[in-house]
Amino acid sequence: MTATPLVSVVVPCLNRIRFIVPTIESVLQQDYPRIECTVVDGGSTDGTLEILRQYDGRLRWLSEPDGGPPNAINKGWRMCSGEILAWLNADDLWALGAVRKVVDYFNEHPEADVVYGDCNIIDQKGEYIKTISVRDWNLRYAAEHCDHILFQPAAFMRRSILERVGWLYPQLCHDHDLWLRIGLLGGTFQHIPAILASARKHPENLGFRSELVIPLKLDLTKRFFSQPNLPESFSEIRARALSNAYLRGIDFVFFDSLPVFQKASMSLNLIRKAFRADSSNIIQVARSLLRLAVQIPLVVLLPYFPNWMVQMVRQMKRRIAV
Length: 322
Description:
By secondary structure, the chain is an alpha/beta fold. The chain has helices spanning 20-28, 48-53, 69-79, 98-108, 139-145, 159-165, 174-184, 210-225, 238-255, 260-277, 282-295, 298-301, 307-321; strands at residues 7-13, 35-41, 60-63, 84-87, 93-94, 114-122, 128-132, 155-158, 189-200. It is globular, with a radius of gyration of 21 Å.
């Protein structure tokens, strides 16, 4: 890799007029000299294109119907020529100096395929909410616990690893899926203990649509464990991983703006499926039940506590006693 490699970032976009300017500016204000920015718009009708025209000459953009974010990002990456690739959703931000930190790290660690950092969470107005200090990458942990670990806005990849892994899978939760596939291929992940980006929390985020994201998380877990090149040692955690993927779905139920009775019903149904997927996953199931009891008043929860749940608790008690 050259000492000052070209960094190419793709911004997938569709009707993000409220957020697109701060996103673009966070790229253009980086102090690293070689950044190529491409906005791939899916056919916005909210005035986004007028804003993009104001940046002619400072970035590249196109607008045409596409197959969703993974398709748009793959399209943009193939148009780019950078040695280091990233994507930044049109509502997120890079931190000042992030790209230079990443390039310096890649130069110092030629073995690294993916470099990622910590991430701030901001609200619709750009106000700070909290900082997420992510853990070091561990493929087995990520697969077993349905945990994406990396925050996508703060992640950068060598083009070579993306070409080897076959780019993004054409389905949402594409970042989570990508980390698993890179890990399975033997890619090296390196964590920089620095804030590299901000992810914006707002009602249009995928995490607020539990009916969509829960099946996606289950699907990517099943897909991972069905791959022919999966190490033999991973087969022993397949049932546990599926059970934990159901329990992970409870997080998205609580992110969603649903009535409390619907959250109770959906969460208990996920717990039922988690227990059936792996009845030995007692501790995690019990923790999820305790979480529900804490977060949802019992007067709301009890009507959704059917006979199968009572039987499951009895089984859990017998297992714990043994």
